[in-house]
Structures are given as C-alpha cells and as structure tokens.
Task: structure prediction
Amino acid sequence: MSTPQLTAQHSQSPRPQATVEEVSFGSTVSFTDQRAGRDQTFTIVASHNAKPHEGTLSIASPVAHALLHHRAGDLVQVPTPSGPRPLLITAIA
Result:
C-alpha cells in the first residue's frame, strides 16, 4: 500500500506596501525650516561621520533627535536657545 505524498504549497499573499516611513538612523530627510523659510535635506548618520556641510547629520544632534520616529507631513519642534524651531518633514528616503 502506498502512502500518498503531501506537498506543501506556500502561497504568498502580496504584502502591503509601506505607505508611510518613519525617520530612523540612515534616513535621508527633507524638511522645511518654518522659521527660516528654507528647505534642507540631511542623511542621519553616526556622530563620527557627520558633516553637515556635506548633508550628513549626527544622530546625536538636537535636529536628528526631533526628527526621529516622525513621518512625512509631521511638524516637529527643535529646542533652541531662542525658542522652538519648527521643522516640517516633507520627504523621507
């Protein structure tokens, strides 16, 4: 008597595409400084790799801390000696 062989077929349902990303280490973040009225883009990196004039920002910086775990469209506040600096996140890559 033969034993029927079962074959497992794994169907993969399409995973929903992430429509919202959060800012994290390694993210490239574009934002508008609402107080200064200018757009900026930075990649969040380790402190020893940060070169703001080249577009990289230390994860330990106040700006990076304010941006972390937020999404495009969020308005975050960066504490500064002259009062909060509002930044509107416009894109995350």
